[in-house]
Amino acid sequence: MSNRETQFAWNYHNRTKHSYESVRRNAHFLDWDNHPLPFKIYPDLEPIALPKETPQTGIAALSAISAAQASSPRSPDLETLTHVLYFSAGITKRRQSPGGEILFRAAACTGALYEIELYLVCGRLADLAAGVYHFGPGDLALRRLREGDFRGALGCGAPAALVASGVYWRNAWKYQARTYRHFGWDNGTIHANLLAVAAALGFEARLRCGFVDSDVNPLLAVDTDREVALTILELGPPAPPPGSIEAAPLQLEVVPYSREEVDYPAMREIHQASSLAFAEEVLAWRGEAPPAPPPPAGETIALQPLADSEIPRDTIEEVILRRGSTRRFAREPITFAQLSTILDRATRGVPADFGTGLNDLYLIANAVEGLAPGAYFYRSSDRSLETLKRGDFRRQAAYLGLEQELPGDAAAAVFFLSDLPRVLDGFGNRGYRAVNLEAGLLGGKMYLAAYAQRLGATGLTFYDDEVVNFFAPHAAGKSAIFLVALGHAAKRRS
Ligand SMILES: Cc1cc2nc3c(=O)[nH]c(=O)nc-3n(C[C@H](O)[C@H](O)[C@H](O)COP(=O)(O)O)c2cc1C
Hints:
Bound molecules: flavin mononucleotide
Shape: globular
Strand content: 15-25%
Number of domains: 2
Radius of gyration: 21 Å
CATH topology of the largest domain: NADH Oxidase
Number of strands: 18
Helix content: 25-40%
Distance between the termini: 55 Å
CATH superfamily of the largest domain: NADH Oxidase
Largest sheet: 7 strands, antiparallel
């Protein structure tokens, strides 16, 4: 099984598609008595409490999410790391529900199941010893798993790196084998926040999807049948990595997530098939830049985003604390400037080793002042919308979003589609991790860009093939990856 045998990504993708029939065929039910814990808890490790209050950056959210990477000598310390961790994976809201209290986090996550864990791997920082640490959002604390400088195992010479992992069962409890897609989406929304907050603090950040899996997983001491490393985010100025030191096996007790866990082997298979075994494979895995889109067949409408001097000044922290997925949209229009600002700010690039442009954006505009209702293709090369068809597609948008009202009521729905043959050809199976991650990351930026303008947003799941059929013939041969609905939130029903 190798990264280049892309039938594994195709098998996984095809067998986890949703369709009208598959949803009705699936007898899965939610076993609330077996609901997984949303935290990884090490009962035997001492917490290192993090500061509860950190200074605000004062940087406008719309600037932070679209900031170009500049070289900066700034190095993280405990306070700035806390800021980055809290505003990406910290608990920002608590709400009572019939099943108990739900602890909502800074970034959106499928089913509020929060299956992504963050680990810090650092050299000696001003106020923290070199080591490998786990971030616990439950008590806002770090726990040290290893003492010493292990950055060499990550091929990272930056002062600090955040490694994100996914815990299968914590999401598969509800979503079964489709969880492997969710790893990308849910890690992506966290990284939208991580990158924005890092930029607001003036840190250089570089996201890597390519690394030798068998070097990173043992460092975190995870049982790879249940939890796997997904990405590495380097923070601070780059430097040659220190020499590798042996990471001895650790036996760390973890509180069980549930009474019992169900294994979905299809996920372990796609993970294994998308693993990179050697440093040479990491260098070789990167693909080509995306081709320019073909000339438009229909009319194009240039985006009209707000200028820097016009954007709302709400800070990145204010916007993250305000964010929450919109549970019901009002059927009220947004302006074309608001939609343009979201698209423009969310698509200005990501400092990632897979480049950009793995996903293409297609829209259904239901109610956008200055834009006729219809279906559009977003031409990122010239920041314009190409008209595919005009008409009222609210009913179809709701149907495509797994028969949920949200995308039908929203002002606009943005569908992420990918030319998967090209992506898998360029990146191998690892491209499947990257394409879902990029979608979550851009979706996460859209959440922030919407909330910065006092609009609402929600991520959504969808009927895979029907999305492609709706946007055909333009989207023929592509695959549906993700969906985000945007608009005004409806007033809460009392
Ligand atoms: C990738 C993704 C897919 C989602 N899909 C749906 C969905 O299909 N339906 C829905 O009502 N909410 C969906 N949500 C919203 C989540 O339920 C929500 O993020 C979670 O409950 C946490 O709440 P919060 O976003 O308000 O913090 C999705 C969120 C994400 C990030």
